[in-house]
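Appendix C reproduces, verbatim, an entry submitted by the partner laboratory led by Prof. M.T., so that reviewers can inspect both the input and the predicted structure.
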Amino acid sequence: MEGTSFSAKTLHSMALSYANVQQSKETKQLETESKALESSNEVIIAQLEKAVEEINRKLAPTFVSVRFQLHEKSHTYFAQVVNAETNEVIREIPPEKLLDMHAEMERLAGLVIDQKM
């Protein structure tokens, strides 16, 4: 039987080709998982919006509505109970000032410690 021999250059290019194929497969899988996660997030947001509309519909006779807002610094949501007629905020849950304090403490801790544990 006659053996097949490959040069080091050929073996190296074959290994690179195999690595590129594997990397391409992993990239496609990550893209697919990312799209699935985005789709899932869109479904959750739609459900949340529907729930808020339902709450506002039920609270309409009391002239009170609920708004959910994103706190920019801490990237968390908080609820505001609002007088529907005057658009005055009656209560915030949790209070926005508390979220501001928490975000500032995290920022100051970041000056001392480089990474979160």
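The chain has two helices and three strands. Additional entries are available on request from the coordinating office.
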